[in-house]
Design brief:
By secondary structure, this protein is mainly α. The protein has a domain of about 140 residues: Tetratricopeptide repeat domain (Serine Threonine Protein Phosphatase 5, Tetratricopeptide repeat), CATH 1.25.40. The longest helix is centred in the last third of the chain and has 17 residues. The protein is elongated and about 125 Å long. The protein starts with about 20 loop residues before the first helix and ends in a 7-residue tail after the last helix. This is Cobalamin biosynthesis protein CobT.
Length: about 550
């Protein structure tokens, strides 16, 4: 809710002062007005102050403007009281003084001057020059709104919308937004569009929302232009139209709208509806980042870290990550943690000093916001005592939070920690049967998402009957899933089971091929079983094995 504009847009109280069309006429009017002002005519004194503010017929001079406004204001001219308040609020021609601004606004407001009522309400809302008092802000906005002041009507809508200074009431909010919007007030048009879009206080109506967004956008209101661009980009409530999206993003970006600049960067980066242009993308990212857009700052950090479109520079990457991280942007907090992590950072190569303790701090900040990989990496560090005291309970807690987001690696780790006797719930001892059943459940979740170590763990359980009925067929199937992903011990176990026909039909050739793969992966015992299988093969089998031995196994 910004204050009303500076005195250049206020009423002069004298229409002739603003109607002259050339310098001579302005000068003549200035001389006439000055003569009247010097004779003590209060309205002329106000008009003369207005001329000095705008350099109209005379050199611009804020100090003289204040002097003439003060004379007129002291005589009770409400426009002069308002304009003198503006000069104090802006610090033009006089030291900035919110108390004096409030004093002069009040004098004009009590005479019913709507613009002064609005600005006095604004000072109460912000606590500038007066104690912050939302009821007083509400009072003065209501006075101005009752006179048709669109800005005050919009601000009343915002107060009812947010429940600040008054009980929250979406219907009242919409009523005030509509009054202002129908006067062409762009902010209110945008706010009314948002209510139609989300159905708060009114039945959701996508077309009404779109209509009000467009009205505000066409007046140059950047947030509405951005919102309209998003709809064209995503095809939300309108036919998808990339060129229109880019056009609206450009109009908002030209006004410095950071999110529009960032989205233009993404569009050029991905070649979405335009030829891919990394340099243009970086230019838009930098504009947004320089304005504090956290996503753009994180994106620049990534490009500096990996040398995408510019020279690799880890120190620059860390600076951009930190800017975004300090705004609470979880992705940047995670990326900064990785850069500081002793496992991934080296003072000799990165230009960023490794700091595992600080890395853990940033992992934690990101993890607490629900960042999946940060939760997992923090758990790893708690489990292994890297940058933080070793703490199995803390590790289990973070693994669980990541596992509950369906992260297979975390689901496996929860199962493994349960198997190791770490109980996620506080209390005396661990119930082995319950822990085993829970571990199986987590292994199964991870295995179904393709996690090879979880698949192998399930194979072992079914193979040995640990916590489940012994089932060689199920064991073979899970081992095979892991083996196909290159898990060496699973390859060895599949080979043994196929060699002996355990849980599957015996197949000397297939068994030998899996055993050979396991041997190549470092399982020393595999070679002995390959030789034993070869001794049992007939010539045809040996030939088949020889022809396939060097071929990769099918997935």
């Amino acid at each position: 809710m910004p204050p009303h504009p500076a005195p250049a847009r206020a009423s002069t109280g004298n229409s002739a002062a603003g109607s002259a069309s050339h310098t001579a006429a302005h000068t003549a009017e200035f001389l006439r007005t000055k003569g009247l002002a010097e004779r003590g005519i209060a309205n002329a004194q106000h008009s003369l102050g207005f001329m000095y503010v705008n350099g109209q017929g005379v050199a611009q001079n804020d100090e003289l403007a204040v002097a003439w406004y003060r004379l007129a204001a002291t005589s009770g001219v409400e426009q002069a009281q308002y304009n003198l308040g503006v000069m104090y609020q802006k610090g033009r021609g006089v030291g900035q003084d919110y108390q004096q601004a409030a004093n002069w606004y009040r004098k004009a407001a009590e005479q019913g001057y709507a613009a002064a009522q609005y600005n006095l309400g604004w000072l109460y809302a912000k606590g500038q020059g007066v104690a912050q008092e939302l009821r007083q802000a509400m009072h003065w906005f209501s006075q101005a709104a009752g006179q048709g002041d669109a800005g005050a009507q919009n601000n009343l809508g915002m107060m009812y919308d947010s429940g600040k200074g008054v009980a929250q009431d979406f219907r009242q909010a919409i009523g005030w937004y509509r009054k202002a919007a129908e006067q062409g007030y762009a902010r209110a048009q945008f706010n009314l569009a948002l209510r139609y879009d989300n159905g708060q206080g009114v039945q959701r109506d996508a077309q009404q929302a779109l209509s009000w967004f467009r009205k505000a956008a066409e007046q140059g209101y950047a947030p509405a232009q951005f919102n309209l661009a998003l709809r064209y980009e995503k095809g939300q409530d309108v036919a998808q139209d990339g060129p229109k999206a880019i056009g609206w993003y450009r109009r908002a970006a030209a006004q410095g709208h950071a999110s529009s600049q960032f989205n233009l960067g993404l569009i050029y980066d991905n070649g979405q509806g335009v030829p891919r242009d990394e340099a243009t993308a970086l230019g838009w990212y930098r504009k947004a980042a320089d304005q504090g857009h956290a996503g753009a700052q994180d994106n620049l950090g990534l490009r500096h870290e990996f040398g995408q479109g510019l020279g690799q520079n880890f120190a620059e990457a860390a600076q951009w990550y930190r800017k975004a991280a300090e705004q609470g942007f979880a992705s940047a907090q995670y990326h900064l943690a990785q850069l500081l992590d002793s496992d991934s950072s080296s003072t000799s190569t990165s230009g960023v000093e490794a700091d595992p303790v600080q890395a853990v701090d940033w992992y934690r900040k990101a993890a607490e916001q629900g960042h999946l990989r940060a939760q997992f990496d923090l758990a790893l560090r708690c489990e292994n005592g890297i940058g933080v005291a070793q703490d199995d309970q803390a590790a289990m807690a973070w693994y669980l939070r990541a596992a509950e987001q369906d992260y297979a690696a975390a689901q496996f780790k929860v199962g493994a920690m349960l198997d190791a006797g770490v109980d996620p719930s506080p209390g005396p001892g661990v119930d082995p049967a319950r822990a085993s059943a829970e571990a199986y459940g987590w292994y199964l979740k991870a295995a179904e998402r393709g996690h090879a170590m979880a698949q192998f763990a399930l194979g072992l359980r079914h193979d040995s009957g640990h916590g489940v009925p012994q089932d060689y067929a199920a064991a073979h199937d899970w081992y095979l899933c892991a083996a196909r992903q290159g898990h060496a011990r699973a390859q060895f176990n599949v080979g043994l089971m196929q060699l002996g026909g355990q849980g599957t039909h015996a197949d000397l050739v297939e068994a030998s091929l899996w055993l050979e793969r396991a041997g190549q992966a470092g399982i020393e015992a595999a070679a002995r079983y390959v030789r034993r299988a070869a001794e049992r093969m007939n010539p045809a089998q040996r030939a088949l094995f020889a022809s396939q031995a060097d071929l990769p196994r099918a997935a």
